[in-house]
Amino acid sequence: MAAPRVSPPDTIAAMGWKRRALDAAHHLGAFRAVASVFGSRRLTVLTYHRIAEMGDAGSIGFVGNVSATPAEFHDQMRWVADRFAVVALDDVAAAAAGGHLPRRPLLITFDDGYRDNLDVAGPILDRLGLPATLFVATDLVGNRIPPWWDLAAWCFAASGVREADLPLIGPRRWTDRHREAVSWIRTAKGLPDAALREGVDSLPRALEVSVDDAPFRHLMLDWEEVATMATKGWAIGAHTRSHPILTKLAPDRIAGEVEGSRALVAEAAGAQPRAFAYPNGQRTDFDAVVRSAVAAAGFELAFSLVPGPSRRSEYTSDPLAIRRVYVHHGDGISRFAAKAGGVARFSEAMR
Fold it and tell me: Strand, helix or coil at 190?
């Protein structure tokens, strides 16, 4: 899961002209010009979470974690296949160790372990002949208790109350349940892990809802399905056990999350995973202590959510901090092209 995203009311009106501006820039080739700044040897790594229809996702979890609808994902993969050399994780590992990638290499990755990665994204990738990598948070696999952010969003959606003394943030009144859920999730993510988990445990009672596993039975992959994906050619990597932000943990817990997830993935996939993805993935989420634990566990590569792409000199000299491009539903092909071309990284460099 990456940072929750929602448009505040005063920006919604501006989105129309921004989208038109992106469309115009896309058709004029502006994003190709930005991409040329990083060179044809740059590595673009796309990050997806869920591939689902918005209404279906909204009924069982956090809509903000939907990266694309099936139609959007299909269009994006067609666009990628026409413009990039889509590579496998093993290709990136070999290149980081001194080998070479083709011009305009691109890696497709998924985080967390949602079942729609297999059922929805998988057939689209198969038809186009594109390899992909899945980073699983191992405690979520085969677990009918969903990720905490999906549980929190479901509690707000299922609740009939419009005001409550909410754990972590206190008394609140709201008219928009989705917006309030996003606000609560954002606050929870900024807290120490123990406080976050305690708040999630208290939320159903505060919102007067009763939680059972029925809505979530088909949300996450089970271990048999993870093994099936490995046999279908997916590379399987680790994403911790319980998906904490690792810098908020004590060093012994960091090691347990990293090493434990690696062992479980190895058992399911039949091989030691080569790569790790940092939960949340911002610069403050993987400090020297975290990186040391990842290296000590034996991972060759680790991926952040710091905006990409990465230059060859970066992923060869520091393969435990490879940048990725975060894909979010509603991007549209122009915004997607901007992200894949490195506009977010270019903007970061200009600040």
Answer: coil
What contacts 235, CB < 8 A, 6 or more positions away?
Answer: 88, 89, 90, 131, 132, 133, 134, 273, 274, 275
Instruction: Measure the CA–CA gap between 327 and 285, rounded to whole angstroms.
Output: 19
User: Using an 8 Å Cβ cutoff, are 34 and 342 in contact?
Assistant: yes
* Per-residue pLDDT tens over the stretch 228-258: 999 999 999 999 999 999 999 999 999 999 9
Q: Given this model, what pLDDT does residue 244 score?
A: 97
CA distance 263 to 304: 21
User: How many CB atoms lie under 10 A from the CB of residue 76?
Assistant: 23
Pull the structure tokens for residue 340. Answer: 């894949």
Tens digit of each residue's pLDDT (9 = 90 or more) over 133-147: 999 999 999 987 889
Render pLDDT for 71-123 as a digit per residue (tens, 0 to 9): 999 999 999 999 999 999 999 999 999 999 999 999 999 999 999 999 999 99
- 192: which strand partners? none
From the list 215, 206, 169, the residue with the least C-alpha distance to 190 is 169
pLDDT of the residue at 217: 86
Backbone angles phi, psi at 68, to 5 degrees: -165, 155
Please check whether residue 112 is in contact with residue 280, taking contact to mean a CB–CB distance below 8 angstroms: no
Contacts of residue 91, Cβ cutoff 8 Å, sequence gap at least 6:
101, 105
